[in-house]
């Protein structure tokens, strides 16, 4: 089976053409002792029902709830000390309720799901087979039959491969395995279980790597590729780092992980207590912290690569200080972080990394090596994701925003887009005929997916590889409803040249 060359192949990350596409223990923040007094008006008991949770995941849910409660208490006490009686508790309480809902959904068991994939499947990333043209190029959402008995709780769509986490804590992988991306032996285009990991809660796929988490730990397989196309892997041994991992490798020194996200060649983990760490290759500032060059002249500095790039370390916020990280989204070479603000209780959005098309949303095209605040006029960001050179988010107020590169319609805000078009600040995106409120977003390399509580799925952007699901290989400059989606939509994900939708049966 032939392997498609990835978009923008071996070009330097800082020199992508604007033409048409053709490419130590790390822990969370310290919380105050559990005996710290809670104001009387906040002492309402919250009952947690575990009747619908299976035993393997119950302790993980309760552990995450305990971490959340400790951090929430710390936030309330900090706000009270900073602002006194005038402190507003509405926003932090809304964030708390939203986060508990996320945890409940993450560990809820028993819901039967169907995985729908579409777009390019020339490397088996659609899991529909490789026997016919319709298997390799799927124009509309099509159910993956090999996963019809699974209950999928997380889906990660990578460059040319995917991972899916089930309610029983297993990981299925499939797609291109040239760089160890599927982490197992066996037929690569079939969804098969990855062994050598614990009971899992989350996972994601990057360009050539996969990362999963469970029980506070995380595992990696595959490879990180630098701008010259050389492979690197997770390890603490400088003699092993310039290689790939063909099976899961537990990430040393990383504890308290509750969620993971992948960029093209880097990863981010959200920790209990609101911490966030990154690791991988940070050539463009995508790690959200300053790191040294990978090379001294023409020679790789393996010790520095392991110490500063590969070893997980906390992100750094411009201006200093720590913040409670609620969620993380990753573009190919940039990171997007949602925080809960200690003073106002609102949700802040921060970004760092490659910014050649304004994908950081900071009003310019200068790269950043530390997280900087994105201005969204005070709206509370619910979730965020990034593509090759663009970003996408939605807010609690109902808004959808996009920024960065837009010359294939990725931003969804203009009827026609000239070569090199971009927006360096968040721009509102209109969803025609929308029913209900926005529930989730997913960014592919050069396209987007959004779904609502009314079970509508919208897509727009680069369409030559059929990843938009509208039946034609053409771009969509505005959001358009995907017609053939049945069932309650649970999540969406965009890959390099394909898309995935999970619905309940």
Number of helices: 4
Please give the number of β-strands. 32
CATH class of the domain at 150-315: Mainly Beta
CATH 2nd-level architecture of the domain at 150-315:
7 Propeller
N- to C-terminal distance: 33 Å
Helix content: 10-25%
Descriptive overview:
Helices cover 12% and strands 34% of the residues. The strands form nine sheets. The protein has a four-stranded antiparallel sheet with strand order 2-1-32-31. Strands 3-4-5-6 form a four-stranded antiparallel sheet. Strands 7-8-9-12 form a four-stranded antiparallel sheet, with no helix packed on it. The chain is mainly beta and 505 residues long. It contains four helices and 32 strands. It has helices at residues 55-83, 90-107, 133-136, 302-310; strands spanning 113-120, 137-143, 152-157, 161-166, 171-175, 192-193, 202-205, 209-214, 217-222, 224-225, 231-232, 245-250, 257-262, 266-271, 276-280, 295-296, 299-300, 313-314, 324-330, 334-340, 347-353, 368-374, 381-386, 390-395, 400-405, 422-428, 438-443, 447-452, 457-461, 476-481, 488-494, 498-504. The protein has a domain at 150-315: Regulator of chromosome condensation 1/beta-lactamase-inhibitor protein II (Methylamine Dehydrogenase, Chain H, 7 Propeller), CATH 2.130.10.30.
């Amino acid at each position: 089976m032939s392997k498609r060359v990835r978009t923008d192949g071996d070009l330097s990350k800082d020199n992508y053409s604007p033409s048409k596409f053709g490419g130590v223990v790390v822990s969370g923040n310290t919380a105050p002792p559990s005996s710290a007094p809670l104001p009387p008006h906040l002492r309402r008991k919250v009952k947690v029902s575990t009747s619908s949770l299976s035993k393997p995941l119950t302790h993980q849910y309760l552990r995450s709830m305990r971490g959340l409660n400790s951090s929430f208490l710390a936030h309330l006490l900090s706000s009270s000390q900073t602002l006194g009686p005038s402190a507003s508790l509405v926003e932090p309480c809304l964030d708390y309720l939203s986060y508990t809902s996320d945890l409940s959904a993450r560990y809820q068991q028993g819901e039967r799901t169907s995985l729908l994939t579409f777009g390019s499947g020339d490397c088996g990333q659609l899991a529909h087979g490789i026997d016919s043209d319709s298997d390799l190029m799927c124009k509309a959402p099509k159910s993956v039959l090999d996963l019809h008995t699974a209950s999928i709780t997380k889906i990660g769509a990578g460059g040319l491969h995917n991972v899916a986490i089930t309610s029983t804590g297993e990981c299925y992988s499939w797609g291109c395995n040239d760089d160890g991306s599927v982490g197992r032996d066996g037929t690569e285009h079939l969804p098969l279980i990855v062994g050598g990991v614990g009971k899992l809660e989350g996972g994601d796929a990057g360009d050539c790597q996969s990362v999963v988490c469970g029980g506070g730990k995380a595992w990696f397989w595959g490879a990180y590729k630098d701008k010259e196309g050389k492979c690197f892997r997770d390890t603490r041994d400088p003699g092993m780092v310039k290689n790939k991992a063909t099976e899961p490798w537990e990430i040393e020194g990383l504890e308290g992980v509750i969620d993971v996200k992948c960029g093209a060649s880097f990863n981010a983990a959200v920790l209990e207590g609101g911490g966030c760490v990154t690791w991988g290759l940070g050539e463009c500032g995508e790690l959200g912290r300053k790191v040294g060059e990978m090379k001294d002249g023409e020679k790789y500095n393996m010790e520095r690569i392991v110490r500063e790039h590969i070893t997980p370390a906390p992100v750094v916020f411009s201006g200093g200080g720590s913040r409670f990280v609620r969620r993380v989204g990753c573009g190919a070479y940039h990171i997007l972080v949602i925080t809960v603000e200690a003073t106002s209780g609102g949700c802040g959005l921060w970004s760092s990394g490659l910014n050649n098309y304004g994908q950081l949303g900071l009003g310019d095209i200068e790269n950043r090596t530390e997280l900087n605040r994105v201005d969204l006029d005070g709206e509370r960001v619910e979730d965020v994701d990034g593509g090759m050179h663009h970003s996408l988010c939605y807010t609690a107020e109902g808004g959808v925003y996009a920024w960065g590169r837009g010359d294939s319609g990725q931003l969804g805000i203009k009827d026609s887009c000239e070569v090199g078009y971009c927006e360096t600040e968040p721009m509102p995106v209109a969803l025609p005929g929308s029913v209900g409120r926005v529930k989730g977003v997913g960014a592919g390399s050069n396209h987007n997916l959004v779904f609502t509580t009314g079970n509508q799925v919208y897509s727009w952007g680069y369409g030559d590889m059929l990843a938009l699901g509208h039946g034609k290989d053409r771009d969509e400059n505005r959001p358009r409803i995907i017609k053939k989606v049945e069932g309650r939509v649970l999540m969406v994900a965009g890959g390099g040249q394909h898309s995935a939708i999970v619905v309940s049966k």
